[in-house]
Structure formats: structure tokens, C-alpha cells
């Protein structure tokens, strides 16, 4: 036993020494790599051209920027700059750095497209090399790609790679009916593969051999390489690698899009409010936590693709898997998740699985299986594991639960209970609480039922008089509630929704205006508080120079973390006159105009003069005086 222990310790020491040697070689190579864009780099017109197979660039900007990502992760200190964090995965980076220049370009281009088997003779990268076979063989020797000759074992997968003429050639070889359509012919070949000859042996092996002959050389990026590269991109910019972006921009490839954004930033085509070189996100204490997060994101990427294709059954199947993964992740990593600030929990695998479960709810609703949708919402809302960890979506979940019960399942009693439980949920914000109150009005036509019976805690929304100097001919009141007759307007305190007031106002007395909803107020607020909102001195909220906003912008503690600065600024505004505020805002406007962020819409006003001549700032200033008064 002692000898075995000594032998094990010697092996571990040798392995550690080997990893350290690989690590030193990686760092040495990265220090000599070009990681800054050349001034004469050719810029593609858009992201589609940037990732296009036919794109021709004098300078492979994607290699330069890829090196920049590697250098920051591995050479900037911290836990990611230690060999023990990465372990044997360092060999992948080592092999990549020792590839030829053309092979590096090809490998990165493969990473920037969907992983699948690629026939070499069907690929065209004229800006890299022609032919590509020698480069693929170099990648195969380095262990970075799979070859169809050694790794393609699934007959059905191989058959699906064939084009129609090749399918007919294979079918003819085995004396099958070649008059069938492509899909029928594929099914026929799959069935033929399972047939047995007189010796009881299936035809699968012979068929696979023939299919591979027709395919020629095919290669596919190894999954381990994709996971590692995705992890590196995630560390560099977790917000840009967020798969939730794909539900609004389904056509983009996240790594490709991110490199294009980095390119635009590097040549001063775009600006962000983030500091130039912020520290990396540091929440991953070991490689497994990081890889678990990356694998969870891969699941959501698939769900985003299926959502665009309307493949609701596949989404439901994936959501069921996500539910199992969530239970395991939460049970094993609860203390780790709870130790993180709420705004950083979204960068964990458990949070991604929670989002996948929510996508499953939406899929159940799409196929009109409202019973299952309700059951899953109740799982999210009543499960203890969600209450203290992921609270940002609870108001939305209560709203969906009540609507499904009332409108789709016609279960008024359960819908009312959902409203009551939602109103009593201390984690539900005021905005969502108001929406639940609206549903209660629909259910019982009055709030007295709930209030009189001691249920819930209702918000009282102070009504706002819109006097005649603001809206001619009308004296209206505004509150967040439904009314029976939105056309009924008179000189009495009739409660109307804001949208109704707006329509009346524009119909009666306005010939031109700006339909911007909250954008206008966000823009004015952003100009007044720019240096506080985008303060680069706040720690653990800036992780990449391409961030549009601090990571905690929508967190409930955003104000608390900057309370002293906000209150000082409020006091300054209170004591300032309009002209002084306009001059300050104009300075901010001119200094930061065009900076891409999520708070200010520069297109909201044609120029700053439009802000100064409008009464937007005066109204904002009056509100602050009223609040302080």
C-alpha cells in the first residue's frame, strides 16, 4: 500500500510537472502572437460577410482577435492563469498554437459555424487555401477534428450527409429502388441497413463503408475543442455570449458576432461605456463549474433554434432534460450559487437550466397543453429552490399562471389563488404586483373582494391630475387599472389608463410628436446620471470592453450599490436651475454621443437642441422637486 501510494504521488507529480511545462510553452507562444489589429485590416461590411465562406480578407482579423482572447485569459493573472485550473485541456491550446497559420485560420472558421460533418470537396475557403485537404489532415493529426474514416459510425447520420445523386448511387449498388424521392430513399437505406443476410449479419457495416466511399473525406470539429473555445469566449465577455440574445437575433452566431463587434471596436467604428481592459469574471472556482455553464448554454442555443423553427416537441423534450439537470446542479452547488450576488447568478448553469424550463412552459402553451404549462409554472413558483435563488422572473410567472388558469382552463378559483399567492410573494416587484391587481379586477370586477377578506397586499397608485394647461378641454385622472368604457370622458375624476390619455391628447391637440414610450425618459435620465450609471470604478460589474451596461443594471440592488452617488446627484439637480442642467447634459451628450449602451437612445432626439427646447427636462426637474418636497 505504501509503495502504491508513493507511485501514485510520483505519477501526480510528473503529470503536474508536464502540465506546468505545457503551460509555460502556451504563455511563451501567446506573448509573441499578434493580438492587436493592424491599421490596414480589411473590414467586412457586415457580420454576414465577416463569417461568409466566400469572404476574402487581406488580414485574418479573427485570428488576431482570437489570440487577444487567449492572451487575456491565460496571461493576465488570476485563477485562469494557472495550469491547475485547466489541467489536460491545456494540450488543446498547445496544439492550436503550434499549427501552421493557415490551419489556425481554418480551425477558427470551423468554430464559427455550426458543428457538423463537412465534406472537404464541398467546402470553399479561397482566402485560406485551396485545396483544404492538407490543412484538415494537419488538424486531424493535432487531434482537433474528427475524421469520418475513424469517427463516423452512425449509418443514419452518414446517409443524411449524402446528396441525392450519391444516394441513388448507393441504392443502385445494393439494388434498391432508385426512383424514390430523396427522403424516401434515405429511409429505405436506413431500413436496408438493419436487414440480415443468410448468416444473420446485418448489412450495416457494408452500407456504411459504401456511404463513406461516396462521401469522401469529411471532418468535424471535436466537441472538446468547441467547449473549450466557448469557455474562453465566455470568460472574456459573458454578456456577449449569452444565448438569450438568440431569441431576439436568431440568425447570428454568438462567437462570430462577438469577433465582429471586437473588430468594430478595434477600428473605432463603435464605442461602449465599459472600461478599456476590465478584469475577467472571477466566479468560476474550478473548470467544471465553467464547463457546466457552457454545456447548459449549448442546450439553450438549441432551444433558440427550435423556437424559430416551431419545433415545440423538441423544446419540451429538452426542457425535461434541463429540469433534471437543474435539480442535480442545485443540489450540488447550492452554497456556491447562494454565495454569488443575484446579478451574477445568471452566469451559472442552474440559471440557464431554469431559463430552459421556462422555454418549456412556453412550448406547452404553444401546443395548447395548458395543464402541463400550469404544472410547470407551479413547480417554478412553489419550489423552494427557486424562491431565494432566482427571483427576477417570479412576477412574470405568477402572471402567466393566473392567465392560463383563468382564460385557458377556465378555473377561476385557482386563478384567484394564484393572484393572491403572487400578491403575498415578497419577491414580486411593484410593476408585476400591479399587473396581478389588474387580473384580480378582471376576476372579481373589484379589489374589495381581496382586500375585504384580508388577502394580499395591494398597491395604491396615486392618481395624477392632467389639468387643462397640459391637455386642453379635459380633466382626467391616470391610474393603472381597467375601466369599462374608455370613451367615457368628462369633467370628473374618471380613472383612465395612460395609453387612453395619450390617444385622446394626440387626437385632439397634437399634429407631430415622438412615439418613444419609456425611451425618452430613459435617455434624459441617462444623460443626467451618466457618470453614475456607467461608473467604471464599481467592482465586479464590468467584465469586457464590449459591455453595453454594468452587469447589475437591472438588479434590485443597483441603486443601493450607488446610493450615496445618486442621492448627491439628486441634491445637485434639486438645487440647480434648468439652464445649468442643460449645460451639464450637453457636455455629456457631446462627450459620449454614439456610445452604444442600453440606457440612452441617441436616435430619440435629432440633436441636443431638441432636448433643450422641449419641456422634457423641465418636467423631470419638477418631478424631483415634488419628490424631495
Automatic annotation (TrEMBL):
GO terms for biological process, alphabetical: interstrand cross-link repair
GO cellular component: nucleus
Start and end residues of each Fanconi-associated nuclease 1-like winged-helix domain: 61-145
EC number of this enzyme: 3.1.4.1
Cofactor needs: Mg(2+); Mn(2+)
Localization terms from the record: Nucleus
MF (Gene Ontology): 5'-3' exonuclease activity; 5'-flap endonuclease activity; flap-structured DNA binding; metal ion binding; phosphodiesterase I activity
Domain Fanconi-associated nuclease 1-like TPR: 291-438
Keyword annotations of the record: DNA damage, DNA repair, Hydrolase, Magnesium, Manganese, Metal-binding, Nuclease, Nucleus
Enzyme class: hydrolase
UniProt catalytic activity: Hydrolytically removes 5'-nucleotides successively from the 3'-hydroxy termini of 3'-hydroxy-terminated oligonucleotides
Protein family per UniProt: Belongs to the FAN1 family.
Record PANTHER family: FANCONI-ASSOCIATED NUCLEASE 1 (PTHR15749)
Designated name of the protein: Fanconi-associated nuclease
Organism for this UniProt entry: Gongylonema pulchrum
Amino acid at each position: 500500500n505504501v509503495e502504491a501510494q508513493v507511485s501514485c504521488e510520483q505519477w501526480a507529480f510528473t503529470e503536474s510537472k508536464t502540465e506546468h511545462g505545457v503551460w509555460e510553452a502556451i504563455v511563451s507562444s501567446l506573448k509573441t502572437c499578434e493580438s492587436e489589429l493592424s491599421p490596414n485590416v480589411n473590414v467586412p461590411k457586415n457580420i454576414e460577410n465577416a463569417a461568409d465562406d466566400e469572404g476574402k480578407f487581406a488580414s485574418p482579423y479573427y485570428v488576431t482577435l482570437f489570440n487577444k482572447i487567449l492572451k487575456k485569459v491565460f496571461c493576465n493573472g488570476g485563477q485562469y492563469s494557472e495550469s491547475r485550473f485547466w489541467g489536460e485541456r491545456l494540450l488543446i491550446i498547445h496544439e492550436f498554437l503550434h499549427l501552421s497559420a493557415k490551419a489556425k485560420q481554418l480551425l477558427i472558421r470551423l468554430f464559427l459555424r455550426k458543428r457538423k460533418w463537412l465534406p472537404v470537396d464541398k467546402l470553399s475557403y479561397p482566402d485560406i487555401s485551396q485545396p483544404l485537404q492538407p490543412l484538415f489532415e494537419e488538424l486531424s493529426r493535432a487531434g482537433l477534428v474528427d475524421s469520418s474514416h475513424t469517427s463516423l459510425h452512425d449509418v443514419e447520420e452518414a446517409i443524411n450527409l449524402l446528396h441525392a445523386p450519391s444516394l441513388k448511387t448507393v441504392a443502385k449498388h445494393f439494388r434498391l429502388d432508385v426512383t424514390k424521392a430523396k427522403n424516401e430513399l434515405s429511409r429505405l437505406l436506413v431500413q436496408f441497413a438493419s436487414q440480415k443476410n443468410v448468416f444473420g449479419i446485418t448489412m450495416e457495416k457494408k452500407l456504411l463503408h459504401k456511404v463513406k466511399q461516396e462521401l469522401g473525406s469529411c471532418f468535424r470539429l471535436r466537441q472538446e475543442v468547441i467547449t473549450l473555445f466557448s469557455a474562453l469566449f465566455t470568460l472574456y465577455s459573458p454578456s456577449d455570449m449569452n444565448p438569450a440574445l438568440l431569441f431576439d437575433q436568431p440568425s447570428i452566431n454568438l462567437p462570430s458576432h462577438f469577433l465582429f463587434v471586437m473588430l468594430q471596436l478595434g477600428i473605432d467604428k463603435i464605442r461602449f461605456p465599459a472600461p478599456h481592459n476590465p478584469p475577467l469574471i472571477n466566479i468560476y472556482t474550478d473548470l467544471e463549474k465553467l464547463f457546466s455553464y457552457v454545456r447548459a448554454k449549448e442546450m439553450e442555443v438549441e432551444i433558440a433554434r427550435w423556437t424559430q423553427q416551431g419545433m415545440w416537441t423538441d423544446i419540451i423534450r429538452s426542457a425535461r432534460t434541463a429540469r433534471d439537470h437543474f435539480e442535480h446542479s442545485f443540489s450540488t452547488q447550492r452554497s456556491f450559487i447562494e454565495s454569488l450576488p443575484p446579478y451574477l447568478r445568471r452566469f451559472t448553469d442552474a440559471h440557464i437550466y431554469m431559463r430552459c424550463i421556462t422555454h418549456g412552459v412556453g412550448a406547452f402553451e404553444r401546443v395548447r397543453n395548458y395543464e402541463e404549462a400550469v404544472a410547470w409554472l407551479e413547480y417554478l413558483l412553489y419550489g423552494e429552490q427557486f424562491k431565494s435563488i432566482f427571483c427576477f422572473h417570479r412576477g412574470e410567472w405568477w402572471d402567466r399562471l393566473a392567465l392560463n388558469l383563468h382564460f385557458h382552463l377556465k378555473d377561476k378559483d385557482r386563478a384567484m389563488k394564484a393572484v393572491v399567492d403572487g400578491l403575498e410573494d415578497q419577491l414580486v416587484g411593484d410593476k408585476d404586483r400591479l399587473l396581478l391587481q389588474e387580473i384580480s379586477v378582471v376576476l372579481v370586477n373589484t379589489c374589495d373582494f381581496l382586500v375585504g377578506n384580508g388577502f394580499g397586499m395591494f398597491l395604491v397608485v396615486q392618481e395624477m391630475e392632467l389639468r387643462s394647461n397640459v391637455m386642453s378641454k379635459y380633466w382626467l385622472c391616470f391610474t393603472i387599472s381597467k375601466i369599462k368604457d374608455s370613451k367615457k370622458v368628462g369633467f370628473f375624476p374618471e380613472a383612465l389608463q395612460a395609453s387612453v390619455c395619450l390617444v385622446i391628447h394626440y387626437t385632439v391637440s397634437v399634429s407631430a410628436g415622438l412615439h418613444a414610450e419609456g425611451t425618452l425618459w430613459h435617455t434624459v435620465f441617462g444623460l443626467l446620471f451618466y457618470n453614475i450609471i456607467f461608473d467604471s470604478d464599481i467592482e465586479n460589474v464590468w467584465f469586457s470592453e464590449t459591455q453595453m451596461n454594468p452587469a447589475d443594471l437591472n438588479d434590485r440592488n443597483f441603486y443601493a450599490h450607488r446610493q450615496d452617488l445618486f442621492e448627491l446627484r439628486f441634491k445637485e439637480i434639486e438645487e440647480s436651475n434648468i439652464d445649468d442642467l442643460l449645460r451639464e447634459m450637453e457636455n455629456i451628450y457631446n462627450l459620449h454621443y454614439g456610445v452604444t449602451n442600453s440606457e440612452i437612445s441617441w436616435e430619440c432626439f435629432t440633436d441636443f437642441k431638441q432636448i433643450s427646447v422641449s419641456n422634457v427636462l423641465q418636467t423631470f426637474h419638477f418631478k424631483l422637486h415634488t419628490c424631495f418636497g
